[in-house]
Amino acid sequence: MSPGAAPTASRRVPAPPPRGWARRAKRHRTVIAAFCTLVGVACITLLPFYWMFSSSLRTMENMFSIPIQWIPDPLNWQSYVLAWQAQDFTRYFLNSGFVAVAITLSNLLLCSLAGYSLTKFHFRGRGLMFILILSTMMLPLEVTMVPLFLIIKQLDWANSYQGLIVPFLVDGFGVFLMRQYMLSIPKDLIDSARIDGASELRIFWMIVLPLCKPALVALAVFTFREAWDMYIWPLIIITKDSLRTLPLGISLFMSSYGTSWDQLMAIAVLGTLPMILLFFFLQRAFIQGIAATGLKE
Amino acid sequence: MPVAPLPTQAPRPATAPAAPSAGRRRLRLSLSAKQAAFGIAILLPTLAVLAIFRFLPMIEAFYLSLTAYDLVHPPKFVGLANFVSLAQDPLFLKSARVSLTYVLFSVVPVLPLSLGLAVLFNRSLFIKNVLRSAVFMPVVMPAVVMAVVWTFMYQQDGVINTLLGWLGIDPIPWLRSSSSALWAVILIGIWRATPYYMVIFLAGLQAIPADYYDAAEIDGAGDWAKFWHITLPLLKPTTLLVIVMNVIVAMKVFAVPLIMTGGGPADSTRVLPLFIYQTAFEFFDMGRAAAMSVFLFVGVMLFSFIQVRMFTRGDEQR
Questions:
Q1: pTM, entire model
Q2: End-to-end CA gap in chain B
Q3: Claim to verify: residue B107 and residue B58 sit in the same structural domain
Q4: What band does B257 get if pLDDT is binned at 50, 70 and 90?
Q5: How many CA atoms lie within 13 A of A84 on its CB side?
Q6: Do B307 and B209 fall within a single domain?
Q7: What is the CATH number of the domain that holds B254?
Q8: Model ipTM?
Q9: What are the distances in angstroms from CA A34 to CA A27, A275, B116, B117, B127?
């Protein structure tokens, strides 16, 4: 493994000093140490994934066997079928998917509109609006959930898709992300489109949005992940089984079938799968969205 | 084409247009007014959603905190009674202490861990991309799934105690003992947060110009010297930001303790958001829950002010 890393490491030294071999040997050691550390860390980060998956296929008799059974034998595919049938997981999946997609789409539209407004138009109070929008990032749901619940109840939106979706149609961070990205779009581009007689909406749709594609993809992945993960809010406003989202279904399953670990792990695998797929297909965007939460400019 | 080239000829009208001639001025005013109206119009949906579902609840939380309200009878104004009784409630004080412990011990280790990983990844390495994806995976796991899987792993005969057994450590009753449950929850928090902030640190590291390191190398600086004198000082803003974000996220932890322990054993993992939830939706004491929310809000506020300042600092210079 180390020979693969060695050439790249030594290439970084522009001109080897007279006693280059000592230096190169030292570099070798640090590269190998770094590699081994990272492999160790990867084992820790992956262990729960492996354990979740392997346990979903382990039979209950072998679940806590001594010595521990690393590779399940015999394989117990039945756990997936049983778990899926124990509750209406098809429905929970569809609910979660629908809610997450709706929230993501609306965030894409509203955040980019707001970002466009905050960068390319001049009006009184624009700076204040931006500060206000940003400040919502410091209002975690955990602080506002009690009154928000009362508002939703007053609207008669408890146990409804609106109740799950509408409060999250737009998010302060998303606006921030789009605004930062749009700062780099030259104003001349927009002005020349105006001269050509394009309507404002058309400029936004045909020129600005396509230019923002990387930011939009990052925002979409980030928002979808957060929405798929959402737990406390559905827990508060949803009591009807037909409206439960997947996290609610999983935690309910945990409290009613708490010791059927094979089935619990099977459901856990299925609940993680969409995120894993998203990560593998849109890895760059996935990471960019998170890196953007660390933007400062 | 008498009108069309107008906007490009003169310096572009900002909010206050320069006025060369009366006729041009009227035309440009109406144009920029129209544009401003469009700009405001497309901002309105965002403002409306945030006003109704963020700011209104915030204001209402302050009002509710001054009332007694059980969802059945109308809210009754009680002044500061909720705050007074909270200050004397040992359960609340314990919950605040648990939250503080959680925040402190899940934030402090994450800093060196995530920065260290970022530094290790910020060089060429064999199968670097594979390793980086592997290390990033905890961020991908939904919080509820994480709670379920770790509950399983923390069982008395579970995989973690088995692994510890290999190291000669006696089994730990992770979630069953009030002395270890909070640490079990904190460990998961670290497991999840470290790769997240690693990504942010990595972005920060990649923004440091390579010239600095090359120059230092010519001067004969070693790896440590470069880290202390170049990397750390230049990463200061990123580090501050990571601390702030991490504190806010840690203050909000909810799903994991609720599912894994329900706040127990002996209230040892009842963090503040969990206590708020239980007070409001299990005991239906909305006023008291709102008072706790205000308390949590003040905590988040202290840190968020720093964050928003940092987010907007660039603008002041612009």
A1: 0.85
A2: 36
A3: no
A4: very high
A5: 12
A6: yes
A7: 1.10.3720.10
A8: 0.86
A9: 10, 29, 10, 9, 12
> Domain extents for chain A?
2-56, 82-292
* Amino acid sitting at position B87: A
Q: Which of A166, A246, A265 sits opposite B152 (nearest CB)?
A: A265
A95-112: pLDDT as tens digits:
999 999 999 999 999 999
A64: which chain B residues are within 8 Å (Cβ-Cβ)?
155, 157-158
Beta bridge partners of B68: B76
Which pLDDT band holds residue B316 (cuts at 50, 70, 90)?
A: very low
Whether residue B73 is contained in a domain is answered as no
Chain A touched by B9 (CB under 8 Å): no
Q: Decide if B289 is inside a domain.
A: yes
What DSSP letter does each residue of A12-49 carry, written as one string?
Answer: TSSS--TTHHHHHHHHHHHHHHHHHHHHHHHHHHHHHH
Listed in sequence order, the residues at least 6 apart from B198 whose beta carbon sits closer than 8 Å to its beta carbon are B113, B114, B115, B117, B118, B121, B135, B136
Q: How many distinct structural domains can be found in chain B? A: 2
pLDDT digits (tens, 9 = 90+) for A266-279: 999 999 999 999 99
A13 to chain B: nearest residue by CA? B217
Structural domain contains residue B16: no
Amino acid letter, residue A139: L
Specify the fold of A82-292: MetI-like fold (1.10.3720)
**A290 Cα to chain B: minimum distance (Å):** 7
Is residue B58 located within the same domain as residue B94? no
Looking at the fold, whether B283 and B230 belong to one and the same domain comes out as yes
CB A134 within 8 A of CB B43: no
